[in-house]
Amino acid sequence: MSSLDILAIGAHPDDVEIGAAGSLLLAAKQGKRIGILDLTYAELSSNGNVERRQQEAAAADRLLGVTQRFNFGLPDRGLEGVRDEAISRVVDLIRRTRPQIVLAPYFQDRHPDHESVSRIVREAVFSAGIHKYQPDDAHPAYRPAQLLYYFINSTVTPQVVVDVTAIYPEKMNVLKCYRSQFELEEGSVATPLTNGYLESVEYRERLFGQQAGVMYAEGFVGAAPYVLSNL
């Protein structure tokens, strides 16, 4: 398993893309190695199925230039029941890939799975740096330099702003890979994601851009106030 510069973690395929696809696109274009971890296969999603969602994730990966994508196959809507296992496995992946930056969902979100992953990743990032936690001589303790939270459904004033204006159409193309989630197709049901969701994402990132003096920006928050021009 190769090392990564950025490891972006979400509950479901499409979470990372919603909040951070633009920043990951920019990083990949700079030659950085990008990994995405989905904790579940989103098997309880109202629309689509696991096979379709994996096909969509693979299409998104090709556009993003992702180095590696992982899926732990943990239970959708059941992450709290396997919390210790999830933390342990994220710790192991962090130590194996040794990313400089870890991205996780913002800790307040309408979807409980997003909040669960936020807490799981926070604990895993901390525990990965503890030598006596799951000691492994082959993959010693390691703590990433930064843990940043990206937005899915919620919005607060970001502490980190990334100008994604130049590649914003590319971000939208990445999100459109997930047609089963964002489009009403024959046999699908209406959800918040099929009711102008991509437009709401664009509105949020135009707002972040306006605040930063650019057209479009992705926003993140971290443990302490700081501003980065890129990831």
UniProtKB/TrEMBL annotation:
Protein name: Bacillithiol biosynthesis deacetylase BshB1
Transmembrane segments: none
Source taxon at top rank: Bacteria
Annotated signal peptide: none
InterPro entries membership: Bacillithiol_biosynth_BshB1, GlcNAc_PI_deacetylase-related, LmbE-like_dom_sf
Stored Gene3D superfamilies: LmbE-like (3.40.50.10320)
Pfam families: PIG-L
